[in-house]
Amino acid sequence: MIQKENMYDSGKFVISLDFELFWGMRDHLTLENYGKHIQAVWEVLPRMIQSFENYQVKATFATVGFLFADDKKELKTSCPNDIPKYSNQSLSPYIRHFDTIGDNEETDPYHFAPSLIKLLQKYPSQEIATHTFSHYYCLEDGQTKDNFRNDLIAAITIAETKGVAIKSLVFPRNQFNEEYLEILRDLGITSYRGNEKIWSPSGLMAKTPNPLKRAFRLLDSYINLSGHNCYNMKDIAKSVPYNIPSSRFLRPYSQKLGLIEKMRVNRILNGMTYAAKNKKVYHLWWHPHNFGGHQEENFKILNKILGHYDKLNSKYGFESATMGEISHALKEKQ
């Protein structure tokens, strides 16, 4: 594996995963229709980590703070007193889940995951980041900056009790709120995953109806409509905390679209190649539960991506890095 001394001498391959179990599920998903995907995370995550280790690939696991708790008692005592009061109360996990969750991971593997976090801690090359404490929605009506600050303090605190130092953040549902970046700085979080530029307020699809936006995103996963969405390290270095934007969401395997799955994979491989050749950052992300169905097909795709990274590393010095490593290197350089 080629290693470069100067961080600008090679492109960077970043992987981040939104690790949330059932806390971040959409309103239409229930234990009846999606529970098997959540349960499969106990098979998927160890296998995924092993694939990363086999190819010497590092990943950032952005973990909901709730998942650190050993039991319901610890979960409740770790919650901030000042919780978000969303106008849409169905978004609040404190309302949706707390009365029905079990006592611990053994009785409720949908809402607790301390054993999986301990597993991650055995692999120092993998980063544990935060996905906020409560899967916090930063753009919803009813919540405030103080709510967010207290939520993040709770996430950092419970992680510290388990021996995890939080330095990176992924905003739940990619609800990026620029006004909240000062809170990240105050609390020592040095990097976050921003959105692709095409989805920013000044982006192409910003004012289009949601159905059209979803259709565009789906088509863009198979055909290059928005570009490779790669980034220069020097641009990332311009502001703190460092914005390490996403390049592509790794969609789960679709049996219905099986005939064109090769196009989706090639879309990712071509983006990685472009980043490696041009010394840019390529940031791929997904959720562990996305691999809960069609596991063999999903892992076949993942290993093809990781194998392609290995070739790019040998040929161009393309490097795997966590979000935390990039922010640390930039901070040291500056």
From TrEMBL:
Stored InterPro entries: Glyco_hydro/deAcase_b/a-brl (IPR011330), NODB_dom (IPR002509)
Start and end residues of each NodB homology domain: 43-190
Protein name per Swiss-Prot or TrEMBL: Polysaccharide deacetylase family protein
Organism: Pricia mediterranea
